[in-house]
Design brief:
This protein is α/β, with parallel strands linked by helices. It has helices at residues 2-12, 49-66, 83-92, 126-131, 144-177, 213-217, 220-239, and strands at 21-26, 70-73, 97-104, 114-118, 120-121, 182-186, 192-193, 200-207. The chain has a single domain (20-239), classed as Zn-dependent exopeptidases (Aminopeptidase, 3-Layer(aba) Sandwich), CATH 3.40.630.40. The protein binds zinc ion.
């Protein structure tokens, strides 16, 4: 088994030669507008989360592409997507990172600030999967047992990288948006990934329903600040 672990380390530790690929996921869309801005409730003129997330994601994509990073968006228009469709996209293209962009809301409309969630795969039990005979990620030339260990090791590495990306995200947002809005890195059972295995985070860029912050989020200057911070964190993570 020692040999297997050495092999695992050698394989997992191998430097990636290809251009890194990031999947950006503008939250909500279509029939799912997400949270609402501080304007007149229920009116089309009011800023909705689905518009804000797309506007920011498009800018993040442009910045990353300028720096030689390949980017795909889960949506580029106002369409409805399920959570699973979003992560399936990332899996299909074998993304290096998955970043979902959202905006917050609070029942009293008094909260403000930004936070980043480390997304986790919920309750994946490697041994149970193996017992059920489910196929692990197929790897040419790697036998099934080592494949199992690889899956496990990679999941651990993905979690670590996601936490690192989340920390960088908060740092970059702090620089642009001020330390008082820093709500920190979070992880909870409501923010789970459905299926994706790459390092994945969800950033809540601010409270769209807050009377002041919500208004700021509708402004081009704020959206540019946020996009710069998110792109910077992703670039830093990929450069490491
Ligand atoms: Zn959302």
């Amino acid at each position: 088994m020692k040999l297997a672990i050495a092999l695992v380390v050698a394989l997992v530790g191998a430097p990636a030669l290809a251009t890194p690929l990031v999947v950006l996921d503008p939250g909500h869309g279509g029939s799912n507008p997400g949270a609402e801005g501080p304007g007149a409730k229920g009116t089309a003129a009011n800023l909705h989360e689905k518009q804000l997330t797309l506007a920011i994601a498009v800018q993040v994509a442009a910045k990353l592409r300028d720096h030689g990073i390949a980017v795909e968006l889960t949506r580029t228009d106002d369409r409805t997507l399920t959570l699973r469709q979003r992560t399936e996209h990332a899996d299909r293209v074998n993304a290096d990172l998955f970043v979902s962009i959202h905006a917050n809301a609070s029942p009293t409309r008094t909260q403000r600030g930004y936070e980043t969630y480390v997304l986790t795969t919920k309750g994946v039990d490697i041994d149970a999967r193996a017992l059920r005979g489910e196929a692990m990620t197929p790897r040419p030339g790697v036998d099934a047992e080592i494949g199992l260990v690889l899956d496990d090791v990679e999941r651990g590495a993905a979690q670590w990288e996601a936490a690192d990306l989340a920390a960088r995200m908060q740092r970059a947002l702090r620089e642009r948006r001020g330390a008082e809005g820093d709500r920190g890195v979070r992880q909870d059972s409501d923010h789970v990934l459905l299926g994706a295995t790459m390092p994945s985070v969800l950033v809540e860029v601010g409270f769209i329903d807050h009377p002041i912050e919500g208004k700021q989020l509708g402004e081009a200057a704020t959206q540019a600040q946020l996009a710069t911070a998110i792109a910077e964190a992703i670039e830093d993570r990929l450069a490491d």
